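Per-record layout

source: viral metagenome
name: HNH domain-containing protein
length: 374
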Amino acid sequence: MIWNDMDRQIAINNKYIGIIQTNKLLSHIIQVPNIQRIRDNAKITEIVAYQQSCLQKTGACNFLGVINIHFCKETGDLYIVDGQHRFESIKIISQMISFPVSIEIVVVDTLEQLRENYNMINKNTPLPEFPDTIDKSIPEKVAMYFHDKYPAIWSKNSRARRPHIYFNFFQEALGVLTERLQIKSAISLQQIIEEHNTKISQWSIDQYPDSKNVSENIIKKCKDTGFYLGIYNHISDDYRYEWVKEIIHIETGIVVKKAKSEPKKRIGVPGKVRSDSWNRHVGSDKGEVLCLCCRETTITALNFEAGHVLSVANGGTTDVDNIRPICSGCNKSMSTTSMDQYIQTYYPKNVDFFKTTTYLEPNKKAPKKWSLFS
């Protein structure tokens, strides 16, 4: 077994943690489980460049952390669970040199146990949701095709502004089309998206959805990139975007009507998220500051409202990244208007403050995650 190839190891219950030479690691067939997130080729290229730089400077690679591999007794196979981008970069660098890396082998009985462990490791990483009835490799392959073809259009932020598209939402939209159109190959889905993109590129501005809010700048960016699906806003329903409904209508003749849903009871912001938003955007050492929107009304750590930067109605999430401590007046006045647009309209002098700074001192800001590693 793979743990027998480790130079040094310790065994803890069902885990083996140790060092292995990459030539021995790569002699084993290690699969990517179906639940694994889509591979980001740009990240792999970035990691390889960094590690090659380390090799030139120090004579050694600098892979941090352990690569988590599961052995599933149910299938008899090895699966990469955490560190797939590092693993793919190791494959490339190992074509030139073999070197030691740290790995963790976890032995599980079933694929369901593997799934549980994967979800535990990645619980803080947003992943696209696909229908259970489809081959998820189809939307993933097509998503990567468009990701590589139109690199300037994608965002890693769920609050992406048109024409930029949050990549997870795009993948989910492709998953919906794969299911509703019963698509069996990536090529078929790719052609459908290409054709619709070409069709939209030939429209006049009054044909665009929400045309009154489509600016010349949005259109220019679409023309510059060659990708026009970013003209559409993300919508909070099963179809993700109106262009998904348009494609279903074109391909099947079925008109997807807007669902009549019962009014949903608004779920408040959890207390933990409220306090975390204060600590992150104001600072745990501060008890009283000015509202982050108007900068006129005083708010305190015990008396503020948790305002959404992008409203829930427009697809915003209730997490610390999308929440800011503001006063009651601003929160109620902006309604579903995005926070930065509200500030731009009513408190334009505060725009730069809102975009570039908080009350935190530079050395108090939350540290950014190192982007090279998965």
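summary: The two ends are 26 Å apart (CA to CA). The chain has three domains: 2-121, 137-252, 271-363.
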